[in-house]
Amino acid sequence: MTKVLISLAIVTLLTGSVFCQTMPARLRMFLSRNYPGWTITESFQVGQPRRPALVDGDFNGDGRRDYAVLITKGERIYAIALFETGGSYQAFNLLGQTREDRWIAGIDVAERNGEVFQSEDPSNPGKPIRLKTEAISLNDGEGMSQVFYWSGGRFRTGYIR
């Protein structure tokens, strides 16, 4: 029994340290300053292990590492994009939901050159748009994703089925 408890403690510590390494300290400080009381939300996709809801990519095409994160603050869950701006970040609130109305199960990166559609209606999706940069994909865990992609100096929305 002692070995099991010790093993469990080690796994818990390692998991925490791995998480700390995935979110840069500067990003953690930015979130704490601008979203006091925030906590990271977990992705809970069906059939996948839970993981911190944090991804990185070049979402605006400037060659710098950007981040997208799901956080919980108070009774709401937010999807936030954070663009590297030299010594800090510029935040974009993409989506906010109450815990009761939450449909976001996870956050991923939609690859550059992938296609998104303007409508979530499968019978009338509209003309596909080819992504010029990586994009932020919020999925419902059942095959539908709302994609936030950078175009014309702002985020626009599309869908992947």
Account of the protein in words:
The chain is of the alpha+beta class and 161 residues long. Helix content is 19%, strand content 40%. The chain contains two helices and 13 strands. It has helices spanning 2-22, 25-34, and strands spanning 39-40, 42-43, 51-52, 54-57, 66-73, 76-84, 89-98, 106-110, 115-116, 129-130, 135-139, 145-151, 154-160. The strands form four sheets. Strands 1, 4, 5, 6 and 7 form a five-stranded antiparallel beta sheet that branches. Strands 8-11-12-13 form a four-stranded antiparallel beta sheet, with no helix packed on it. A hairpin with a 2-residue loop joins strand 12 and strand 13. The radius of gyration is 17 Å and the shape is globular.
Per-chain topology:
Layout: H1 2-22, H2 25-34, E1 39-40, E2 42-43, E3 51-52, E4 54-57, E5 66-73, E6 76-84, E7 89-98, E8 106-110, E9 115-116, E10 129-130, E11 135-139, E12 145-151, E13 154-160
Antiparallel strand pairs: 1-5, 2-3, 4-5, 5-6, 6-7, 8-11, 9-10, 11-12, 12-13
Strand content: 35-45%
**What is the residue-averaged pLDDT?**
84
Structural class: alpha+beta
Poorly predicted runs of 5 or more residues: 1-21
Shape: globular
Helix fraction bin: 10-25%
- Helix run count: 2
Separation of termini? 47 Å
Return Rg in Å: 17 Å
Largest beta-sheet characterization: 5 strands, antiparallel
How many strands appear in the DSSP assignment?
13
Q: Summarize the helix and strand pattern as letters.
A: HHEEEEEEEEEEEEE
